[in-house]
Amino acid sequence: MIATLFKPKRPKTPALYNDSFFNTLRQKEYSRLDKDNHVYLDYTGGNLYSESQILKHLNYLKAHTFGNPHSSNPTSKHATYLVEETRNSILDYFNAHDYHCIFTQNASGALKIVGECYPFTATSEYLLFSDNHNSVNGIREYCRNKGGSFNYVPLKFENLRVDEDRLKEALHKNKSASNKLFAYPAQSNVSGVQHDLNWVAYAQQLGWDVLLDAAAYVPTSQLDLSKIKPDFVTMSFYKIFGYPTGLGCLLVKKSKFNKLKKPWFAGGTVTLASVMAPHHFLINNHERFENGTLNYLDIPALKTGLEYINEIGIDRINARVKSLTHYLCEKLSALKHTNEMRKVKLFGPCDRSDTGGTLIMSFFDSRNNIIPFEHIEKQANAKNISLRTGCFCNPGIDEINNNLSAEELDSYFSTRHTGNYNEMINTLQKLRGATRISVGIATNKADLDYFIDFVKHLE
Length: 459
Prior knowledge:
- It is a single chain.
- By secondary structure, the chain is of the alpha/beta class.
- It has two domains: about 1-50 and about 315-390 and about 435-455, Aspartate Aminotransferase, domain 1; about 70-310, Type I PLP-dependent aspartate aminotransferase-like (Major domain) (Aspartate Aminotransferase, domain 2).
- The protein has helices spanning about 20-30, 30-35, 50-65, 75-95, 105-115, 135, 140-145, 165-170, 200-205, 240, 300-310, 315-335, 375-380, 395-400, 405-415, 420-430, 445-455, and strands at about 40, 100-105, 125-130, 150-155, 180-185, 210-215, 230-235, 250-255, 270-275, 280, 345, 360-365, 370, 385, 390, 435-440.
């Protein structure tokens, strides 16, 4: 427990944004962190739920009887009402009234719908950033299986931002291609870099459909879909407010809804289906893609979560997270061994003005040898610090940061049928992975100082 460990030194620094407000919020809504002596620095992995959210949802469940929505009986109608009320609250929150809101298990489930149903052909192209979650990368297999091509736009090593010249060049190519899909993250799940949302309209003007992965962006930034209008948007709600897990959504612009060609049907997705005659009619709204029974007991908790965020204010959360991140960058960058060798290398831009609350880094000993991330995680676990290590389902960032070449990677994959992380490291003799910390709504200065002192003691 933290109380029995070293006490972090508290350097004199300017006050963090709205420190008093967020300290009070932590005491009221997240007191379990201090009760259990947790230093939680994995908000990009999963946000934390507030106590009031859980109590409000518990009262929902205690006060009502809910039935499967696919009926017109009283309990079913009540569940249906709450599900649709929640759906409308999501559309309101994102100013997305030109969109259908399709409930999914998570952002990956939403991305799978796009990959499975987008009408890729032999003349199609799938364009994406080298900075993408694997659930976005995986859509390339749908395109490739239909005979189409895919292309990655590289990042700049020095700041992990997209190479804009290469992106413009890629977007202007293949003007005659049919069904071109361009995908990128509004915010990197690894570096925290927020990519320019103006690329959405720029690509659309050149005939591209645009898929925006908003999962890492929306927990701390407002996404106004009346201004930025991607064709498809994906997200997970636990990333925003912690509870419930297992629910995300796909927002589909109504004008592009029928472009998604569902290759099968399931319960709840048809108006009619026949066994004797091989025919079916798909429902012509969001239900077309909501296979089987929705998670109708948890969906109302999404509305509660959005109300909680609105009460605090997403702009206030955004400013708080930026101030926390600036503080971390300043303090970690200054850490050195007694021989003046650096202790930490932060990847990504030095200017954190257009980033979220996520930082990726590697640690070095006094001889300038990198400390394996497994060692960092083991020591952090012993200090009750929750952080994350590895490549974070984003191999593109990891390959850039560790200077792996396309030739090395192609040689590795083409000479075996199976492989894993450690085997690749041993074969290529190059390191993989890093350490990621991320701050959020319940983070306070004591958490940051404790982590900084933890890094000071690394050898």
